[in-house]
Amino acid sequence: MMKSKKKFAVMLMGSDYQQKKDYAVLETGGTETHIIAVNTPQQALETVKTLADDGFGAVEVCGAFGEALARQMYEAAGKRLSVGFVVCPSDQKEMSDRFWSQQD
After folding, report:
1. What are the backbone dihedrals phi and psi of residue 30, each rounded to the nearest 5 degrees, phi first?
2. Domain count along the chain
3. DSSP state, 40?
4. pTM for this one?
5. Residue 1 is assigned to a structural domain of this protein
């Protein structure tokens, strides 16, 4: 019997993403890493439920999510996968905020 791969996701959020198009899967060893894009917090909550149903064990979300939404996602997924969130060190927060507030 073939052992199934671990499924892990990295989720990005932004209004310009197209969820169906902006998607990638990287396979290494025993792990599938899925890069997923969403547009809104509500879409993230819906997507994380699907990930849990599909056997994902963990998801890391970008800084746009924050701790509160990451915790909501954990609850929305029925506490079936861990949800980590990316933050920058406090001494770099001003630089990060300046970068992300710039218009394209």
Report:
1. -100, 20
2. 1
3. S
4. 0.85
5. no
Task: Specify if 17 maps to a domain.
Answer: yes
pLDDT per residue, tens digit, the chain (104 aa), is 566 889 999 999 998 999 889 999 999 989 999 999 999 999 999 999 999 999 999 999 988 898 999 999 999 999 999 999 988 888 998 998 888 788 76
Helix (H, G, I), strand (E, B) or coil at 86: coil
Q: Where are the alpha helices (DSSP H) in the chain?
A: 41-53, 66-76, 93-101
Torsion angle of the four alpha carbons 56, 19, 63, 41, in this order, in degrees rounded to the nearest 10: -90
The residue range of the domain holding 70 is: 6-101
pLDDT of amino acid 104: 63
Q: What is the CATH number of the domain that holds 30?
A: 3.40.50
The encoded tokens of residue 20 equal 């169906």
Neighbours of 23 (CB within 10 A): 12
